[in-house]
Amino acid sequence: IAIHAEARARGYPFHMHVAEQRREVEDCLAAYGARPLMLLLDTLDLGAEFTAVHCTHSPPAELTRFVQHGARICACPLTEANLGDGIPDLGAIQGQDAPLCLGSDSNERISMVEEMRWLEYGQRLNRQTRGVLSRDGLVARSLLEAATLGGARALGIDAGRIAPGEYADFVTVDLTHPTLADVGADQLLEALVFGAGNEVIRETCVGGRWRDTGTPPASNSAFQLPERALRPR
Asked: Does residue 174 carry a catalytic annotation?
């Protein structure tokens, strides 16, 4: 309680692993008489600073109440699959104001494209239906938002979109790669999320600085560093 209160007083983000495995839930019930997420809801003054990582075994009603406080949920689909944790039921909170973000926990595979894809695929397997995390029928857009804007909000930084005053953190995509070469502009995002992998990621820009090559991307990439300067880190 004291650590969370101090973090909130300083304006720091606060992340905690919550209900990742069944044993954790059982131990929490035995020790406190409440499930992990409910214990946090009843104990802490939660807000947008708080991100619960995993929530694999949190019922939909708990998740709904949690995000109504403005708090966020970080899913780690590849980690949760690798460890056999289970699949969080996120369908109930879809449509809230960007409560989801994506993380990499065990780091067995570092691929944000796969994390986006399996965020939706896990929900499809769990509910046996498609488009669980869609917003206005746009699944890929919702997944991209979780990976970009949702992640930036969870970290408490001004990033996740290309706009004046935001950190210049983004990647470029190779549109000439065979995976994307014949895809029309209106289907490009869906093709990237559901059909591509790390092989299409060409360069990475962090705080306005290009990593690896140190030079701007080629003209056939999907995104360019805008002429208007963005705030560097």
From this structure: no
Mean pLDDT value of segment 78-93: 93
Q: Is the dihedral of CA 41, 17, 57, 149 positive or negative?
A: positive
Active site residue 105: yes
Query: Which of 54, 85, 89, 174 is an active site residue?
Result: 54
| Alpha-carbon span 154 to 145, nearest angstrom | 12
- Out of 85, 89, 105, 169, the active site residue is 105
- The structure's pTM equals 0.87
To the nearest whole number, what is the mean pLDDT of the chain?
Answer: 89
Identify the band that residue 106 occupies on the pLDDT scale cut at 50, 70 and 90: confident
d(CA 170, CA 201): 10
- 69: nearest Cα among 102, 33, 41: 41
Whether the CB-CB separation of 163 and 155 falls below 8 Å is answered with: no
